[in-house]
Amino acid sequence: MTVEELKALQDAGEAPLVLDLREPFELAVSPFPFEVLAIPLGSLPRRLGELPKERTIVCACRSGSRSAQAAAFLRSAGFAAAVNLEGGILAWSERIDPSVRRY
To answer: Which one of 10, 52, 56, 66 has the fewest beta carbons within 10 angstroms of its own beta carbon?
Structure first.
């Protein structure tokens, strides 16, 4: 999913669950400007029970690499609607909200 597609869903009131896979220090430096569920990638396997299988889950990270891994893992674990946020928070900052700090 592109950042533009995510923004359009949010604007339409159809916001999916955004799963932020970055580490706590990264979240402190540059948070998304909306509510997310923060689970570091390394903790994801043991925290699957916190995720709803019936919702679209948009996996996000700094650049899209970790989130692509997470989306593939979630799909293999039965979360059919797990997708990757292409470009991560860097793309969000570049194309949607330049006030979001890049790091």
So the answer is: 52
pTM of the model: 0.96
From residue 65, alpha-carbon distances to 6, 14, 23, 46, 54 in Å are 17, 25, 14, 20, 24
Q: What pLDDT score does 1 carry?
A: 98
Q: pLDDT by residue (tens digit) across 43-52?
A: 999 999 999 9
**Superfamily of domain 3-96, CATH level 4:** Rhodanese-like domain (3.40.250.10)
Interval 20-34: pLDDT, tens:
999 999 999 999 999
Give the DSSP H or E segment for 10.
helix 3-11
Domain range annotation of the chain: 3-96
